[in-house]
Amino acid sequence: MQHNITIKAGGSEKDYWKDLWLNRQLLLILSKRDISVRYKQTLLGVAWSVLRPLMTMTVMVFVFSYLAKIKSDPGIPYPLMVLSGLTIWTFFANTFTQISNSILINSNLVSKVYFPRLLMPLSSIAVGLVDFLITFGIFLLLTAFFQHPLSVNLIYLPFFVLLTFVTALGFGLFFAVLNVRFRDIGQLIPFMVQVGMYACPVAYSSTLAQGTWFEKYYNLNPLVGIIDGFRWCLLGDKAYFNPDSLYSTAIISTTVLILSLIYFRKKENSFVDHI
Amino acid sequence: MSVIVAENISKKYIIDHQKKSGSSSLKDIVSEKFDGMFKSKDGSNSTKEEFWALKDVNFSIEQGDRIGIVGHNGAGKSTLLKILSRITEPSTGEIRIQGRIASLLEVGTGFHPELTGRENIFLNGAILGMAKREIKQSFDAIVDFAGVEKFLDTPVKRYSSGMYVRLGFAIAAHLNPEILIVDEVLAVGDTEFQKKCLGKMRDVSESGRTLLFVSHNLTAIQALCNRAFYFEKGRLIDQGDTTHIVTNYLSKVSHKTLEKHWDHIHDAPGNDEVRIKSFKVTPEYQDNLSHIDVRTPVDFEFEFWNMVEGANLNLSMHVYTFTGECIFNVGTTSQPFGQGIVKGVCRLPGNFLNDGSYVVSMMIVKDTSTVLYNMEEALVFDIEDYRENVTWYGKWPGYIRPQLDFSIQQSEHIVND
Prior knowledge:
The complex is a heterodimer.
Chain A: E1 4-8, H1 16-22, H2 24-38, H3 47-67, H4 78-105, H5 107-110, H6 119-123, H7 125-146, H8 157-181, H9 184-199, H10 215-218, H11 222-235, H12 244-267, H13 271-274
Helix pairs in contact in A: 2-7, 3-4, 3-7, 4-7, 4-8, 4-9, 4-11, 8-11, 8-12, 11-12
Chain B: E1 2-16, H1 26-38, E2 48-62, E3 66-71, H2 77-84, E4 92-98, E5 101-104, H3 117-127, H4 132-146, H5 161-173, E6 179-183, H6 191-206, E7 210-214, H7 218-224, E8 227-232, E9 235-241, H8 242-253, E10 259-261, E11 274-283, E12 298-306, E13 311-321, E14 326-331, E15 335-337, E16 340-348, E17 356-366, E18 370-383
Parallel strand pairs in B: 3-7, 3-8, 5-6, 6-7
Antiparallel strand pairs in B: 1-2, 1-4, 8-9, 10-11, 11-12, 12-16, 13-14, 13-15, 13-17, 17-18
């Protein structure tokens, strides 16, 4: 096979996606690296992936349900509501954070070797995905414990996971590029994630926003549709889900992803000059 | 067939004089924009400066060429390699490359300290562009070349630096690209390993593949390359036959520096703890000559201001050949000094170094461990050839030319009856 490359200012556009495909093995290996390195030299190892969501859930149940007396949707145990929201929110938050930092974390690669830079944000999803699967397993066990029936809506679940991924990638790519140029982003992201958790229906139900003056702005948040929908898949029709919120999610997330991809492609060849 | 054709390649960097670190923060940009509103555009206090790391570079490389790239630090060699490796893009110009290209700008790129040697072979191989199948095929050869069989399942953070480098190079050596780009990786590793590497690179070039090689080691370039590029200040100023280019380069850079001194402490190089006052070579000329030859004893005299009372200091001097190989390193003992001028003298006896050009570096070391200041490539001096009662005029081999007790005598006579 003959390889011909033309290097010029502005980058070589036409073979990019082919290159990305040819490098899929590298994508796998980088993902595997992130996963296998994660719990090296920890005492508890993978147990952390189980403990963390359980502990977060316990704290939230205590604070929001016992102290703040927030009600879940009728017919749904509060711990299940929190954990379902937490599962998908954590997936989003982890993935988003990892993607935003992916270029800087791999700066040693960026400055020494070429491959389509998009591989780095893509490979950083792996860790979040593994955590997601583990938390999901915990959730299933907990449903059995509360003897809450699983819903047939479950078949829509992959769609919501995909939508989360699209949203995280869209926003993450944008911040990943900015992060290379401005290290302020590294400070900003944990803060955004923290605020985001309260802005999204993780510990409470979206019904609380129903009928208020800010409801239509509230629904603009792409994660509202995702979290409510995800919960609806898992807990059935008793969980509140306004399908209209999904339109804004789909439109906003897709648009952001496309814009971010364009932005990323435009900047990726000069990453090394700013690292 | 030309495998690489470069036309008008330039690379511009914007240097920001105010900033200390490479990356700017959002605040800087905002405040800059804000300042800009109140200042004229062509304000004289502009802090940005354009810097052309490469300027209008044109060349073409044929298949099977082994190109050595020489030039001073900052001449643009590494920038060129980075552009060819597609790590950064040129500001102007175009390069057309035919064939699979692999570049080795660093040994062990992407090694993860927590992963084992085995895992890192696959990781690094994939990063360098090898398919999993290819890595599996050459796995045993890689392990063998690096000599790390016993430590395959040990995390590389426990490796010695030598093992780390060997493993890194072994992986790269088993790449099978049509074009191989190598940057100064021989600077690390011991002599035996360097030989191995050079051998491997020669194999690469003899199999008809194309090689681009940057090194300060001119001996290696001469041994390996058939053509050379000479870069100066971002421009490709000369190219052609390796010997011709290397000679040209040496003649241009061989500025003898026998003495350096600073009269005032404020403009002297150094830091808050020490500042250099002077460093010079003082030969004890023989036969009323005014040049140093192999017989001439030489004193290196070094003076510096010590600004910390009671600092425990010692000096460490390195002597290199002109092609960058270290011949020896010699140090003083460490002892406490008061504030003021400290002087060190090292005597290099006659009949010790062979003829050639030598480069001297001097380090000031605190507590026998911390390098306070390293005065790199501070002095350059030549040693001329001198021979007595010899009717052979070839280049005397070796780095040193000691006069040792070496006698020859008749130990037995054959008596013919």
